[in-house]
Amino acid sequence: MEESMEERLARLEGIMEQINQRLNHIEVEISDLRNAVKSETDTLRGEIASLRAEMSDMRAEMHTRIDGLRTEVMGEIGRLRSEMNELRDEMLSRDDRLRTEVMREIGELNSKIDGLKDEIHKNFRYLVGIIVGVLLPMLVTIILTVLFKK
């Protein structure tokens, strides 16, 4: 029942050897896991660097496109401003021509009105002359008839 010390030591040595083998096996597995994690980390870092490079390229492309659009829009704005200035100049020219034409028409109408006023005055004098020429003798005749009738 009682085991000898040597047997116990042998059993302990066997147990220690089994533990040592198991620990070695665990160390190998941990080393394999470390290597796998390092490999995956390196792969992920490579993919992240690749994605960053792609994003940088896309960002540069977008900046190029935006700059192109900005240039195009600024050119279009310049053309529109030029066209607006041309239209403004054309409208001012038309306005000046219309103003000149209207002022000429007003001048012509004023002369016609002045001519009509002169004609009305002349006709009024003629009418007054006729009235005076006809009514005055009639009035003198009536006055003389009334005076001499008695």
Number of strands: 0
Biggest sheet record: none
The string of secondary-structure elements, in order, is H
Tally of separate helices: 1
Helix content: over 70%
Q: Structural class given helices, strands, pairing?
A: mainly alpha
Shape: rod-shaped
Please tell me how large the radius of gyration is. Answer: 62 Å
**Averaged pLDDT:** 91
Distance between the termini: 201 Å
- Percent strand equals under 5%
Low-confidence stretches: none
What keyword list fits this structure?
96% helix; mainly alpha; 150 residues
Kindly describe this structure.
The N and C termini lie far apart (201 Å). The chain has 1 helix and no strands. The longest helix is centred in the middle third of the chain and has 144 residues, at 5-148. The mean pLDDT is 91. By secondary structure, it is mainly alpha-helical. It is rod-shaped and about 200 Å long.
What is the element layout, followed by pairings?
Layout: H1 5-148
Structure summary:
This protein has 150 residues and is mainly α.
